[in-house]
Write a structure and sequence with these properties.
Order of helices and strands: EEEEEEHEEEHEHHHEEEEEEEEH
Number of helices: 6
Number of strands: 18
Mean pLDDT: 92
Strand content: 25-35%
Bound molecules: P-hydroxybenzoic acid, fe (iii) ion
Radius of gyration: 21 Å
Structural class: alpha+beta
Low-confidence stretches: 3-10
């Protein structure tokens, strides 16, 4: 594999080309776009991706600050998070590219790659295209550069400080004010639970209707932390169409399908070899092992609870063989 070791090396942006889009460099990678496509070049190879799919993946990589483990934009290009540095790779987790020695990787300090990806996302997103929205609820990503959608691409991920509905987190509670129920969740009941706390506990016993809360989410495939207990994070999300990344996790991850149906394509994390197809219907619970990558397909907008163990110790424990890749031995 060709690789450059220099952490924090050059990443830079060029002048706009004739279609109005700027080009970008990350070490020996170059990134350009035209009306329909994004082009990547590196010393041993080249790659082309549809601009809409690339921007949906880039949006998540930026908003999630490189997420847990590996964010594959597709079968070739992606990033691997080392929580301080980030590997930017092509073909690194693709058996054929590896065998042909066409893969390439650059390692950058997180702030350097964050800055260039943020600029690329802003420059390449046209007015009217929202990479977080479902395809039915947004305009086109294509054409020569026209305007921007910085309001959408810089939206902050909702982070709960306490459980939603507990005093102190009022600002995160969703109401009708600018948060309409999504067209696909018109049948979701909006009533809130009845609470009967003992006298003196009125401000400590709290509850809310999670289905009603999620029914108003305007974005897709964007888990938000709703409850925290030490390293345990409950991250529900609403899903429609295709998860824009193929996620190669660095830990076990649990899914609870809260409504409707998602099909998960599960592959070996390192080679991309097919491992399983998991069809999850409302009420189903699955644990994704720590050595796979996955991508979900949701034909109708659905609600999913992603349960993460955010402990920073887990990747090293897995590498040392002190934790199993499977969360349960049956
Ligand atoms: C995942 O990679 O596990 C994931 C990411 C975003 C979602 C759901 C699942 O919305
Ligand atoms: Fe995942």
């Amino acid at each position: 594999m060709a690789t450059t070791e220099a952490v924090g090396r050059i990443s830079e942006a060029g002048e706009p080309g004739e279609l109005g889009y700027r080009s970008f460099r990350v070490g020996e990678f170059s990134f350009t776009r035209d009306e329909y496509f994004v082009y990547l070049h590196w010393p041993t190879g080249r790659h082309v991706a549809s601009a809409d799919a690339f921007l949906r993946a880039l949006q998540r990589d930026v908003a999630w600050d490189f997420f847990y483990g590996i964010v594959n934009f597709d079968q070739v290009f992606g990033t691997m998070n080392h929580y301080g540095t980030v590997d930017v790779f092509a073909g690194r987790f693709n058996e054929a590219y590896r065998r042909a020695e066409l893969d390439h990787m650059e390692t950058l300090e997180t702030p350097a790659i964050r800055a260039i990806f943020t600029e690329m996302l802003s420059d390449w997103t046209n007015e009217g295209f929202d990479p977080f929205a479902s395809p039915e609820e947004t305009g086109s990503a294509f054409g020569p550069k026209h305007g921007d959608n910085d309001a959408a691409v810089t939206r902050r991920r909702v982070l709960a400080k306490r459980m939603v509905s507990v005093p102190g987190d009022e600002e995160l509670r969703t109401d009708d004010n600018g948060h309409p129920v999504n067209r696909m969740f018109a049948d979701v009941a909006q009533d809130e639970p009845e609470l009967h706390p003992e006298p003196g506990f009125e401000d400590r016993i709290c509850g809310f209707n999670l289905f009603a809360y999620l029914s108003r989410s305007p974005v897709t495939w964007n888990p938000s932390v709703v409850a925290v207990c030490k390293d345990s994070l409950y991250c529900p999300t609403t899903e429609e169409y295709i998860l824009p990344i193929i996620h190669g996790n660095d830990r076990v991850e649990w899914f609870v399908q809260l409504s409707d149906e998602i099909t998960w394509e599960v592959e070996d994390r390192d080679s991309g070899a097919k491992r399983a197809k998991v069809i999850m219907r409302a009420g189903d619970v699955a644990a994704m092992p720590a050595d796979i990558r996955h991508q979900g397909y949701s034909p109708k907008r659905s609600m999913l609870l992603v349960w993460e163990n955010a402990s920073p110790e887990i990747p090293a424990l897995l590498r040392a063989g002190k934790l199993s890749n499977a969360p349960v031995a049956f």
